[in-house]
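#data-curation
PF: Archiving a pair of folding outputs for the training set. Convention for this channel: one message per protein, sequence first, structure tokens after, nothing in between. First:
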Amino acid sequence: MSIDPKQLDAIGRPIIVASHMRSGTHLTIDLLRRHFPETNPRLRPLETLHHLYVDMDSFNPGHHNPMTTDEALRLLTRNPRPIIKTHTLPDVTLCKPEFRPIVERIYERAQIISVVRDGRSVMLSLKRFEMPWNAEARGSFSEFMRTQWEGLVRPAYWDKHVRAWQRSSNSFTIRYDHIVKDTKDALQDLGAFLSMTPSMREPLLPPAMKNRYDGWFRRLLGNTETTNIPGERPGPGEPRTWQEQFSPEDCAFFDHLAGELLIELGYEPDHEWASAQTGADAQ
């Protein structure tokens, strides 16, 4: 069924929050909704927290929670600056054919916020997140980091994903740790990029969900401040940082595939980190 051009014209100026998985996607979405009213729609009866933004990945074949074009257009036209989430690459051909006009219009009008996080921390968080459903994530960390995602070993895909969104036109890159550690400055940067004034409502950061049960409880109470999806928390004695987890071989492996990007993003001054002893081998 064809889409009425008037429906496409009704889409405001979307904000795409693009990130590799486990990089602060929902924190950024919730930060925007908390401080920029133009981005924050009201939930209607029977809607869930996932209706507060549009998951563009649900337009793609095989997605676990597919969306219809009617539903997508309804969510995209309910407020002036709809937020769109995506973890996939910026490629209009990835979506199902019926969504092509919508995705093309989104890219035509959108401002893009590329949220980045230290890829080494991403690898650790990703393994914990995937453990409940991915057998590969239940093995050793070194083995997991060498598994493939979308045809590339994971550090190489992280590098490809971040660079692809940074190259997109009308794209602004912000670091996850900058949002967390200097929220006021991050909000000012986002406001300048989006040409909107943040409310600076205290506390500046939205509350984090403690676990999945906390999310269900918040939905029952009608609390829409947070949409984040908690991962598995490390157990007693398990590594909590990449420095505790990475072996010297892991450091060399990651640096070979994505070390230049770590330097470009400001996470390392040079490649020396990869030759330093880390984790259990540190003295």
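PF: Second:
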Amino acid sequence: MSGPAQQDHRSAPAQARFGRFLRYGMAVVGPVGSAAAQFVLALQMLHALTPASFGAFSFLLVTFQFSLGLWSALFCAPLPIVLTEPDTQRRESMANAFFAMNLLLGTLAFGLFWLIGAAVGLESIAAALFAAYVAFALLRWFARAYAYAMGAPLQTVTSDIVYTVALFAAIGLMMVWRSETVTAPCAALLASTVVALLPFGRRFLARQFVHLSWKDAPRYRDVWTQHARWSLAGVVSTEATGNAHAYIVTLFAGPAAFATLAASALLIRPIGVVMNALSEFERPQMARQLAKGRLDLALRALIVFRAVLVAVWVASAALGTAILILAPHVLFPARYELSYIATGAALWMAVAFVRLLRMPESTLLQAAGVFRPLAWASVVSAFASLPAVTLLLLAKGPLWSIAGVLIGEAVFAVWIWRQTRHWRIRMLTEAARAASPAMGDEELAAGAAGEGGKVEAGP
């Protein structure tokens, strides 16, 4: 091959990578905008509320993030696998089960978060508004995943943009009215989330709220048995690893002590937003590739995925450092000790870096439906994180409890990489066996393990 044909052949991978970067840009534009609005809202509350009130609201947001993880485990992660089911009748029946269970559990979440809000000291109306926000946000989280799985990413992007614009408008009104209570932010979050459901269209909304097929709801039992129970176990233990400090510090030291930790974590929020957005975007893509037998494409996607995450981390670290050196009080009120904030931010940056390094492999295993090893990875890390956070809290105080989270994340990452390597070797061995049935298992496995696995699955 020579001349223009050779140049086209060589430029194909570069074009593919450029196309993936463009798709990533589309995937993150909405979540980044949403995160920017939420970041501005958090800053306004940081300056307007007392440390105890800000700590209580920040704790509620941590529990809300946990609920998003539960929804990812119960619905979002298994959804792309179910929707690649070749049997049309079974696929539709399973989708009906997802919609019914989504609304049922969303209603239960409303009642639970109303109780949690009251327990941490919110007024009754504020607790009800926050609970309603959580319920609709969980429904929207499912809607985003469904749109991705159905190949309609523009619906998700549009929804995120609508949410961003609506929340910024609400923040503007709050600034004009000089609101200093938790009720107004809760109302703003609820209104923005409800409006952001509209871009998913009349058909989706009717299927979610009106034309529910409750007779198909028991079919969710199959999803639970095959995928969701292990995914859920992984989410619960992952929460114990990543957010153990929030529960332990709030329990032992109170919301005011957690407020400073929450304030220092604001600087890594963009990293978490991008990680979640790209994971939600990439998971159905990988699931479709694996369903078609294109393991090589799924493995290749890990490289770009990780490169984007590292670039976001570097940019966030540089921006955070510049803010802390040049204009710290633009973000943090004077009542928060700057050295404490800076140390906390540095620890959170280390946590985020370890977390993003294993995120691509976690997403790949989810796309493949390999939930049991993921669950065990997070269980093992939780056993490292929980005692580490507790001991560091008692010995060094709330700030250094973040180092316990870092220990758990490091254990999590090592275990995930180990599980991914074993899964990859097994898949490549099976692909090689299909291509060369005369070769022995040991020879095939050795070939798959060397050089990262040169055997490609699929044509």
